[in-house]
């Protein structure tokens, strides 16, 4: 019998066995090789000593109950090693099945988060009690990494909750529930207030159920809500593909489809066969490119970015206590809310007390909504609002240790507002601007302490968007960069760090996506197909509707300014075919976008978006100008990816993880790609395949698709885009 190294066996005199998950080599328990061997050993022993055992409690000595599959292993799976993964997974499933059918009561005492593999272990127990601790989450988030729960999670949730609830509540969205919500939705059976109560409740179940069995092992068990064999259920089946389409927008996400198939197919066969079906789909997803992209981005890159791989070392962490927000418009109001929510006192300044108060009202509305939805208490909401002081008087900014400016996008105005307050705030206050395009180095010229000046680019709506782009100006010091980083983490957002340049990373790259879509309209392509192409790529917003949201006059103004700057410096403006379309829309047809009531779309009285403007077809669309759908999609994706490589070449971007996370969290680059540079890594044929396709696009659609030297060199050297840290 092999020994168990990661599962500790504790047995009391009454024959109650407590299996304690406690991997000695890791901070969290995962489904690694050591766990697999330990589970086999423990299962053998349980069977061998069955007669002396009264019941089993499964719990953990770590902060989380069990973390799930080891992503370091999963990201390395290839079609060649897939069989190994299949066999290993099946072994774990069979051992869990042996424990589940031992004839003894088995209870999961969830002392902390039980997500993915953790919840799957709990599902193999007859009873699930969770400690109601803050931050303790329960569910199957595998879908968000392009995977499915391959440890029996599909098979058991379907048998526990029924196909529809298993899919909609657990599997397809990957919802992470608090213990109380997990209880309400039937994922667990009980909650406990303290660790002592948790174990007491687990023991009580064992005492009361000496011969416990899973519902699906009792005679006559039927899957709740029925299976496709039942005509009543079958009538509802067509709704699932529609749900899938809604979730993925037709974009290439293989996991939801595989989950649906594993659930439905597995519901029509016996438990063992269903486990094999689940294993097959799991391995197919794990060996595929999408799960690798998503694991790389949403796990490894995100961790690198949030843990401060880019934060200057050796600068003591600092917390902001009182922040001045200048400008209480859309962005300032949102920034004030996010800071107050994180416990920071906010002085919100605008030109008049009324304008400042209006900015604070925005927080009032968000708080009221959060209270009405049960997401916060009235008390907490009141405390949040009490932290925001609206004002028009610069003197009220005394003592602020950070400033975030969000007035109109105008260099002279920004200089003026900083001059007004620089001597009033704390003498070492961090000075930040939320400009979305203006170079930080030039803005810094408006303040005395240029080393303390930095860009802090938030995204709209601030309360929902997780990203902040930190922009280092030429004279920004390391201390300011570290403090800006700490401030972003303090308000629980994700910081990426870039060097100064017009439009930085995010605004510049999203501009290419929009320009490409607009250019296609100018070429005579049907505007509805352009929108469809963007949606089916997996972009959250269609391209022309996004242009309308941002307003067409904005890129026009920025372009004219940038062009002047480039030409004054003796350069040539590269130009883009989208420019002529935007100029005609604004100057000839008077359609500036949503804020002006008309744009590429029509808008109702209430501002709601209507249909595409029929004039587009009349003035732009030409028969015979259609191009392959794949070209339309790749023109958008490539335009962003190629410019990101140029940004690396220019030194504006210095980290691959920042590029990937920034593109996913800031500007809606499709999630299945794993981010804008991972998209290149994972492209069919790798970097050489990407270069060849870029050249093809350049030939057909223009020089802007010519692959930059850095990309070509990396492709030739057989490299990919990664951070060598
Ligand atoms: P907004 O027009 O909604 O708000 C600007 C506010 O600044 C107004 O309330 C105005 O009264 C106030 N203001 C003007 N002069 C002032 C002064 N001397 N002192 C104090 N307040 C003054 O503009 P929005 O959209 O909030 O943008 C603000 C900044 O944020 C701009 O630099 C913009 O480029 C940037 N930004 C905007 C994003 C967006 O999606 N709208 C995204 C990221 C950055």
TrEMBL record:
Domain 3-hydroxyacyl-CoA dehydrogenase NAD binding: 323-500
Tagged with keyword Nucleotide-binding: no
Catalyzed reactions per annotation: a (3S)-3-hydroxyacyl-CoA + NAD(+) = a 3-oxoacyl-CoA + NADH + H(+)
Pathway(s): Lipid metabolism; fatty acid beta-oxidation
Keywords assigned: Fatty acid metabolism, Lipid degradation, Lipid metabolism, Lyase, Multifunctional enzyme, NAD, Oxidoreductase
Domain (3-hydroxyacyl-CoA dehydrogenase C-terminal): residue spans on this chain: 503-603
Signal peptide coordinates: none
Family to which the UniProt record says this protein belongs: In the central section; belongs to the 3-hydroxyacyl-CoA dehydrogenase family.
Annotated protein name in UniProt: 3-hydroxyacyl-CoA dehydrogenase NAD-binding domain-containing protein
Protein's organism: Streptomyces vulcanius
